[in-house]
């Protein structure tokens, strides 16, 4: 089954047609979608979408690019939200958290403080982490070694093969999506080809990181089908094997995910029902 392990369906880019976007994903064969929050203001939105659609799960966290605008009390708000949601089977992880040293002007020390605090919550609550790691792989690894979470995903991974191995050693798998579909993305494509079978999960990061065939368009979870096909072609493997294995990897690193998948069949969309 196809699982989009990282998608921002709560983003304003989907406000005009969110229901249709979700229906297209189900029609395309996507079995589950995971929505990470990016700030405290988005906690309710991802929870509400998960409540409305049985095969949507969510994560709660504060994204590194939102740390500078976050309030000091937002970490306490996150803790309270996690405590409140622990019995919710749709809560799958803590995320999107991590570090971003690519965008200029960010407060790196504050990013690291928020990241460290959220890793500590992941350990406390026994939840995996969904991580943003951009130009900060070694620093993220430093924090993971200090406070190892119970697994997780480094989404849109673009580090070296050596760094990838260190993440895998810590129980973190790597997310591959639209960036992998560009011929010029040599390092990402090399990782997709060469890493072991247990290393990968699939994602869209919709509405961002569109694949090559819609390079200037809005990404959406239905594109995961062609992304999976491109991934299979890179590895020289059957599509069915890739779909099954990446789903198994997602379920391994997000242990609550199988229960979400068991919540009945994926709904029939309105277009398919007519």
In terms of topology, how is this protein built?
Blueprint lengths: L1 E3 L13 H11 L1 E7 L6 H10 L3 E5 L13 H12 L5 E10 L7 H18 L3 E6 L2 H10 L5 E4 L5 H9 L2 E5 L9 H9 L5 E3 L21 H12 L3 H15 L3 H5 L8 H4 L1
Parallel strand pairs: 1-2, 2-3, 3-4, 4-5, 5-6, 6-7, 7-8
Helix pairs in contact: 3-4, 8-9
Quick recap:
The chain is of the alpha/beta class and 274 residues long. The protein is built from eleven helices and eight strands.
Give an overview in words.
With 274 residues, the chain is an alpha/beta fold. It has one domain (2-273): Metal-dependent hydrolases (TIM Barrel). The chain is 42% helix and 16% strand. The chain has eleven helices and eight strands. It has helices at 18-28, 43-52, 74-85, 108-125, 137-146, 161-169, 186-194, 224-235, 239-253, 257-261, 270-273, and strands at 2-4, 30-36, 56-60, 91-100, 129-134, 152-155, 172-176, 200-202. An eight-stranded parallel beta sheet has the order 1-2-3-4-5-6-7-8. It starts with a strand and ends with a helix. The relative contact order is 0.17.
